[in-house]
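Consortium newsletter contribution from the modelling node. Members have asked for a concrete example of what our holo predictions look like. Here is one, prepared for the adenosine monophosphate complex that several groups have been discussing at recent meetings.
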Amino acid sequence: MLGLMQDRQLLISSLIDYAAEYHGATEIVSRTVEGPIHRYDYAAARRRSMRLANVLRDLGIGPGDRIGTLAWNGYRHFELYYAVSGSGAILHTINPRLFPDQITYIANHAEDRWLFVDLTFVELLEGIADSLDSVEGIVVMTDEAHMPETALANVHCYETLIAGAADGFDWPEFDENTASSLCYTSGTTGNPKGVLYSHRSTVLHSYAACLRDVVGLGADDCVMPVVPMFHANSWGIAYAAPMSGAKLVLPGARMDGESVHQLMYDEGVTVSAGVPTVWLMLLQYLRDNGKDLPDFKRCVIGGSAAPRSMIEAFETEYDTTVLHAWGMTEMSPLGTVGMLTPALDALPYAEQLDYKEKQGRGIYGVEMKITDDDGNELPRDGEAFGHLMVRGPWIAQSYFKGEGGAILDGDGWFDTGDVATLDDKGFMHITDRAKDVIKSGGEWISSIDLENLAVGHPGVAEAAVIGVVHPKWDERPLLVIVRAPGASVEGPELLAFMAGKIAKWWMPDDVVFVDEIPHTATGKIQKVALREMFKDHRLPTVDAAE
Ligand code: AMP
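And here is the predicted structure:
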């Protein structure tokens, strides 16, 4: 027997409609690429999104057509989120930090019909325009006064198009499983692959993001996604903010500590989310300048492991609760968030940190398990580590155009490519990407644990650990360090600092110092590049073994 409830479809347009109707005067504040701070509210955002939907219709954009963006977090990008998906087309957010060849590949693979670009990326686009096969025209996201001189063909000005468009737009009703947006994974090997979100997966993911123990947004919050709107939909915040009625602050292109602090301070940001690199810069700035952020209550840190020292600094020095989160583009992206249960919250702080350092507890809607190489489930004892498998309504079932073939096993589980433990309190702890784990004498060593430990030393700005070939053990860990400004720490001091905090056989065999560690376009350490850099590195322990 079927239930007798209304079959209303979960559509992205309903989010902006809701925000305009019930939180219409709540502000959206953007730091623009042109310079000034721009302010308006949800009611105005809907009005302009509807005008933009009319623009798209006049350009001949229809259901299922892909519209690419190369843009920072700003109000025009926000309007595209709603105008494009709301009208039944697909918003393809391109990561502008990718190499131009990858951007070309992605835009062609997605068959983007139009591109919307911030002023910052016009030059980049000029360099690749000739190799874009499907693009019919370009809209520069600015006003007439700032329109650049460009050799690009069929270029339009965003504000001029909006000004010339009709008011009001009837959002179409369609199946909630319709594709809404497209985001390519940054994949360290092979070509990027497209994750095609649906209206249903996006709305369900937004509900989850709003839950109090997840990102936890309400109308009294002011949320600033530092995480870009081209990185898994700013981790869902561009949708969750209107759903909850939270004030939204969009930081534009400037991610340095001073700019981030100023905007957060001025606007009274209560919740923010981003990768550790950004928070490192902010913490450095706060400390060096004796600044604080009195309104900042919750900081979601994910994308890479949040070091213990960073969590502790936010919580003890600035009274900001850290929510260590894990997810992936394929998961919309939220999978786990590290809110403590009341029982864990009652533990001494050092023991709480042991849990906060893990990547968090499963959230409603995401099933998780860990398996060995043969697919057998491993115990949830916090010790055994294996392949992390996930299942849920906002997790990809295949990549766009079937790239990479079938990605689910017979029971519908997706292999995340991460290696993790699960414990009896429901916490998941990533020990590595499957391909980065260090295999020493048949046992696995977690490079992430070693990195987190090393960055706890005040003389270290950033640490990476890779496996280097060893004749006796197959691989042994090499610690690669970027020193903190002005620091002079040497290898032996660092190893002495780490000794006693990890199993003896996990201790790195050598330490090297570099000026910079290479990062991917989404801020992750590029282990492939590091392994290449140090492929001929001879560990001191090799001599002893020979
Ligand atoms: P992306 O799809 O670019 O968001 O990358 C997803 C991957 O980033 C995951 O599969 C993890 O390997 C890594 N990742 C995300 N969050 C964390 C975290 N909190 N700690 C460690 N790794 C993370």
